[in-house]
């Protein structure tokens, strides 16, 4: 199975890399402290190769959320260097349900392959990968360029972020996406 895109113009989707996710009091314990380093490496590689980069920002409708447009946490993190070819804003999990219309833009640009990175692994990144796969895109999920937070199950058990990450990888790989690494995506 291919671990890297096969077309000349895969788009890099950088999802919800926002300052508000630094609020540990609000979100809880996170995993993957190297996530931002891997995201920066992907952006740098895509920009150096003049490949399409899409930034996605979550504009929460909850006024108490660090991601609400009135909050400083809504801002994109400084590691998102340069200008993207497209900035999508959304208030739901899938980047395909935002504005402007990501699917329409990808079709207009004749892009059939996507590389997904960002925050959080098991919410907006996984949902975008699932929808992208359902829409017929070849999706590559850069697992080490995502992070998530511990979550409490309906039964009250705390599920570790690393466990959630592995479940996401298992759910996606071979069904909705190819789970891969930053190293595989940035090597020549």
From TrEMBL:
All copies of domain Isochorismatase-like, residue ranges: 11-157
Record Gene3D superfamilies: Isochorismatase-like
Superkingdom field: Bacteria
Molecular function via GO: hydrolase activity
Statement: the UniProt record of this protein carries the keyword Hydrolase: yes
Pfam families linked to this entry: Isochorismatase (PF00857)
UniProt KW S-adenosyl-L-methionine keyword: no
Name of protein: Cysteine hydrolase
Key words, A-Z: Hydrolase
